[in-house]
Amino acid sequence: MKLFSSVNDVANINYLVKEALELKKNPFAFQHLGKNKTIGLVFMNPSLRTRMSTQKAATNLGMNVMVLNIDKEGWALELRDGVKMDGTSVEHIREAAAVMGQYVDILGLRSFPSLKDREADYGEEIFNKFVELCGVPVISLESATRHPLQSLADLITIEELKTKPRPKVVLSWAPHVKALPQAVPNSFSEWMCKADVDFTIAHPAGLELSEEFTQGANITHNQQSALADADFIYVKNWSAFEPYGKVIPSHEDWMLTNDKLRITNNAKVMHCLPVRRDLELSAEILDGPNSIVIKEASNREWAAQAVLKQMLESL
Ligand code: AN0
Ligand code: CP
After folding, report:
1. What's the 51 CA to ligand 2 centre distance in angstroms?
2. pLDDT digits (tens, 9 = 90+) for 126-174
3. N or C: which end of the chain has fewer CB within 10 A?
4. The sheet that has 106-110: what strands, in order across it?
5. What pTM does this model have?
6. Residue 293: its pLDDT value, please?
7. Quick check: bond before 243 cis, omega within 30?
8. pLDDT confidence bin for 248, thresholds 50/70/90
9. Residue nearest to atom 7 of ligand 2 (CA)
10. Do 13 and 127 lie in a common domain?
11. Could you tell me the residue range of the domain that residue 9 belongs to?
12. Which of 271, 177, 182, 168 is nearest to 226 (CA)?
């Protein structure tokens, strides 16, 4: 694998999940693969899980790891072409990305959307520039429109914990006070649409995701009907796709509570984290027996390791 930016870069998702579960049983079996190979993890935005799990995964494979929190520790980057750099940016993405490619065999990049310019965000302008300019395989650590390492970890978690061959999985929108990206729900949706699950998305009117990611999903504005008989509920806030990046207020009643779980099939509750307690998701669920959020975060390590293994094999 030379690029991991979406589910479309994966030849066989079932095989990738199987590989991840095998690595979980035997994490150090492929240490020789990464010997004398270096990965650079470049963050243009904050991270806890992606940074730590990907670093751990690379180390398990014997790789050297360099982390650059470019938003805090790097030079201010100019991302636009054709501008005279007489403002605050110090270095152009053209030099920065090309130089990074000199030091690493694989580059990981996190670049969130602006949530202001939909065309630039959905054109993945920053991520694609890095891919074009760095000259080495690139792994997404969450781009403007997708978070594939998260979605793979989510699928691994569902595969591990399902109690029937084709579980009912519900992506349920949650309230928030800030405008968050659509990357996690877009990505979760496109992975679930390819997985062997019965998939429903529930959100208030006006929070439709881009149809590019939801082909094959059942979509409803009725949270209660969606939750009936659910085996897994994936809780996540996102801002509007249209009007782009807007927070649509007064939907506090969409927060998931123990009471709402009563009509489900004792559903397991997921969230990519970080989560705001008692705003997005009730503390009673997070602290209760239905929450699988820590297991899900734990599986980020095996998701990253399975992808890095396939990348190392194709170097
Ligand atoms: C980010 C998001 O919603 O895309 C990262 C989640 C992994 N979340 C926040 O900014 C709170
Ligand atoms: N879920 C996730 O990607 O978490 P971080 O933003 O902390 O990496």
Report:
1. 8
2. 999 999 999 999 999 999 999 999 999 999 999 999 999 999 999 999 9
3. C
4. 3-4, 138-140, 106-110, 38-43, 64-69
5. 0.98
6. 99
7. yes
8. confident
9. 48
10. yes
11. 3-146+300-314
12. 168
Can you give the pLDDT at residue 223?
98
Establish whether residue 143 lines the binding site of ligand 2, counting it when its CB lies within 6 angstroms of any ligand atom: no
CA 272–ligand 2 middle distance (angstroms): 7
Ligand nearest to the CA of 296: 2
Percent of the chain's residues with pLDDT above 70: 100
Six-digit token string for 252: 């506090």
Residue 249 has pLDDT above 90, yes or no: no
Residues 107 and 208 in one domain: no
Q: Is 50 in the pocket of ligand 2 (CB under 6 A)?
A: yes
Is 48's C-beta closer than 6 angstroms to any atom of ligand 2?
A: yes
Q: Examine the domain organization and report whether 282 and 173 are in the same domain.
A: yes
pLDDT at 30: 98
Q: Check whether residue 23 and residue 133 sit in a common domain.
A: yes
CA 114–ligand 2 middle distance (angstroms): 18
Determine how many CB atoms are found less than 10 A away from the CB of residue 187.
27
Our mutation pick for probing the ligand 1 site, out of 43, 71, 141, 142, counting the most ligand atoms within 8 A of Cβ, is 142
Distance 272 CA to ligand 1 centre (A): 8
What does the alpha-carbon distance between residue 191 and residue 4 come to, in Å, rounded to a whole number? 13
| Same domain, residue pair 205 and 98 | no
Question: How far, in Å, CA of 7 to CA of 177, rounded?
Answer: 30
Domain containing residue 115: CATH number: 3.40.50.1370
Of 51, 213, 272, 277, the residue with max ligand 1 atoms within 8 A of its CB, to mutate for a pocket test, comes to 272
pLDDT at residue 250, as a whole number: 78
Report the domain count for the chain. 2
